[in-house]
Amino acid sequence: MLNTLVINNIALIDKLEVSFAKGLNILSGETGAGKSIIIDSVNFVLGRRVDKSIIRYGEDRAQVSAYFDYDDKIASSLADMGIEVEDDEIMLSRIMSTDGKNVCRINGQKVTVAMLREVAQQLADIYGQHESSKLLDSDTHLSVLDSYAQDKLRPYLSEQKALYDEYREVRSKIAKYGDMHDIDRVKDLLAYQINEIQEAQLQPGEEEKLLLRRKKINNYEVLLTALSGASNALDGDGGALEGVGASFRELVKCAEYDERISQLCDRIDSCKIELSDICDEINGIADDCEFDPSEAQYVYDRLDKIRTLERKYGADIDAVIAAYNQFKEQYEFYEGGEQALDKLNSQLKQITAKLDKNTAKITTVRKECAKVLENLVTAQLRHLGMKNAIFQVHFADKEDIDGEVNKYSPIGSDVIEFLFSANSGQPVKPLSKIISGGELSRFMLAIKNTIADTDAIQTMIFDEIDTGISGETAQIVAEKLYDISRSRQVLAVTHLPQLASMADSHYLIAKSVKDGKTYTSLDMLDSDGMLREIARLIGGRDYSDYALPHAKEMKEHSDLYKVSH
Fold first, then answer.
1. Does residue 403 have a pLDDT over 50?
2. Is the pLDDT confidence value at 451 over 90?
């Protein structure tokens, strides 16, 4: 259950904290007051995709936190993520900055948006107009059925994915080695490639060492000139060693008169020894720098050989060696090609047999669950005032849809479509071709309520579920939402007085202007406030003579319904 929602800098909301109760929570307000902002905020903290335009103008970031009750299943999911649960509730938090960066947390611990969404899906379900339009797309119908059948399908879908991955791997190996009729030609090419790389005897890191040697060879004269100059500066006429020696000879004459001068003599003598050693090192390096034409030719030829192989087989020596190992593996395969291919084909036959069996099981489970779903949704529709409604789940072969048989996939081979008829004597047709806006709202409510019974989600949020309905149908929908709220928390944004009068808790969304800025607020109404808001929904702002008495009558009727049901 959603206990508390804290919103900062979302659209017209500056700061807002609201607590929700059990049962049916109704949110209403004038058009444009910001009802959608509340839903957007909940979507945001539940990990849904949002645009940074959601951030309040003039602010650099937006944040929403939501506090939920949880059960053992959610605690187990959090434990799998390494997140501890200590309190009676868990906290989801999400921050978005103007640079588009997201920071998500669960109980204060950083998580990814995907992890946040995974947990949120077990806590709350939001139904809005976008979900209605998605339901008209038959491509979504299989996922709806699978949501209902998830407990029975889970082991088979898990097995299907493992088998399908193995199936693709074996198929890939078979395709990788091509047609066995070309075996001799392929083996000759592989033998040539293996021999060419093998003869080169490449060593990891060799190219870098050769490049350093080439650099030294190409700069031989510069190097030799620098070494000679350095040696002359130290040991030539007037060089550093001569100067240091002269300095020592002068100071030693008077060293006995001052201890400090004696210490300087020792230091100069040490410098002379160090400089002499440096000079010897320089001369040794110069002696080693004799230009060797044969070595230079070797370096140039070796680098040319390496570059040729890299152009053929990879970006660097490591890639060429990797290609060599791959060629050897392929060659060894072709040495026993027919036997190996026979083995792979045998494996593929075994896997496809298992896939056929498991795919058939998935279809069987789906058809069994589809029959139950048909009955449950039809019953829900009739409770929602659609007395003659018929709902069917139609299974079609892939070839019936696009002329191709897609026999294997990670989720089975079924293609389904929801069929519907609202009126007696009318044949069922695809949902998208026959259902009206008001019917679609009730159909979605029936689907959501049926599936919710299987996934145990404790918070259901409806954004204007009443779109396209009025009168008796509105009253029926209101009663259905209340029925749902007896076993789980329901939050519903509405503009209908019938639904507002059924509220256990009623919140008014209002818009105001202060210091030239627009703000949206959300306040819980007392009993008088609830009546005034119901009256406004009935008759507008003037609360005319009929609106308030009618509101009281509607509230009394709703209270009576609650007591009697």
1. no
2. no
Give the whole-angstrom CA distance, residue 148 versus residue 366. 10
* Residue in this structure with the two tokens 């919103």, named with its chain if needed: 7
Residue closest to 23 by CA, chosen among 355, 444, 492, 526: 492
> Which residues lie below 8 Å from residue 234, measured CB to CB, with a gap of 6+?
240, 241, 275, 278, 279, 282
What is the tens place of the pLDDT at every residue in 322-373? 999 999 988 887 777 677 778 888 999 999 999 999 999 999 999 999 999 9
Q: What is the largest CA-CA distance in the chain?
A: 130
Over the chain, what is the mean pLDDT?
85
Residues 6+ apart with CB under 8 A from 223: 216, 289
Give me the half-sphere count of Cα atoms (radius 13 Å) on the Cβ side of residue 11: 18
Phi-psi region of 304 (alpha: psi -120 to 50; beta: other; left: phi over 0): alpha
User: Pseudo-torsion of CA 213, 217, 218, 220, nearest 10°?
Assistant: 130
Residue that is written with structure tokens 């060419």 in the block: 196
- What span, in angstroms and rounded, lies between the C-alpha atoms of 523 and 512? 13
- Mean local confidence (pLDDT), 101-125: 90
Opening angle at CA 396, ends 395 and 398, nearest 5: 135
Please count the other Cβ atoms lying within 10 Å of the Cβ belonging to residue 45: 24
What is the CATH code of the structural domain delimited by 2-136+458-564? 3.40.50.300
Show the DSSP H helices in 289-336 as ranges: 293-313, 317-335
Share above pLDDT 70 across residues of the chain, in percent, rounded to a whole number = 92
Q: Which residue has the tokens 């921050």?
A: 95
| CB atoms inside a 10 Å sphere around CB 498 | 25
Please give the distance of CA 319 from its chain centroid, rounded to a whole number: 32
The two three-digit tokens of residue 52, written as one number = 């940074």
Burial class (CB in 10 A: 0-12, 13-18, 19+), 118: middle
- Cα 344 to Cα 178: distance, rounded to the nearest angstrom: 13
Helix, strand and coil content of the chain, in percent to the nearest 5, comes to 60, 15, 25
Look-up of token digits 């003659």? 388
Paired tokens of 149: 């059948």
Q: What are phi and psi of 292, to 5 degrees?
A: -115, 105
Q: What is the pLDDT of residues 185-233, one digit of tens each?
A: 888 888 999 999 999 898 888 888 888 878 777 766 677 677 777 877 8
Question: Strand pairing partners for 395?
Answer: 416
* pLDDT of 81 higher than 70: yes
Contact 497, 538 (CB under 8 A): yes
Strands of 50-157, DSSP E: 61-69, 89-97, 102-106, 109-111, 124-127
Task: Write the CB contacts of 487 (distance below 8 Å, at least 6 apart in sequence).
Answer: none
Q: Can you give the residue ranges of every domain in the chain?
A: 2-136+458-564, 139-176+337-434, 184-335
Angle 212-218-224 (CA atoms, 0-180°, nearest 5)?
100
What is the model's pTM?
0.64
Contact 68, 2 (CB under 8 A): yes
Q: How far is CA 448 from the centre of its chain?
A: 25
The answer to whether residues 294 and 213 touch, using CB atoms and an 8 Å cutoff, is no
DSSP per-residue letters across 486-549: TTSEEEEE---HHHHTT-SEEEEEEEEEETTEEEEEEEE--HHHHHHHHHHHHH-TT--TTHHH
